[in-house]
Design brief:
It contains five helices and six strands; from the N terminus they run H-H-H-E-E-H-E-E-H-E-E. The protein is an alpha/beta fold. The chain starts with a helix and ends with a strand. Strands 1, 2, 3, 4, 5 and 6 form a six-stranded mixed β-sheet that branches.
Amino acid sequence: MKAFVLFLAVVVFSINRIYAQALSNDPAFGQIVAKLIRYPALAHQQQKVSEAYVNFKIDSQGKITDVSVLNATHVDPSFKKEISRVWKQLPTQDRKYKGDYVLPVSFMLDTKSQLKRAKPESSILIQKSSQYTLSKAVVVTAYI
């Protein structure tokens, strides 16, 4: 019984260490993305909204690689271009964050009477959920 309790304690400790080292728990990353990203002017003029699921990897050196938009067919090219611009500017991350991530980026419009947002595409997340760590969404809001 003591061996089982010790084993369980080690497993819980290991899981907590892995979870604590996930990029999704680092608020600075989302803040950097939020600071760099802008609502595309053309999308703003055309009153377009979108929710993009940005998939990327952090390699053993902390470099961000393999950036793609999982739901690219449902995301306007102006939003994809902005995401590409921002991800090229992101700094190298701590090596402890090595892994595969998805960061939802919501582009919304705030009209004086309502908040216009895209419908989330959770089916993409469900299909690939075991392959990556999901980070907290970054919201980009433009005003009309």
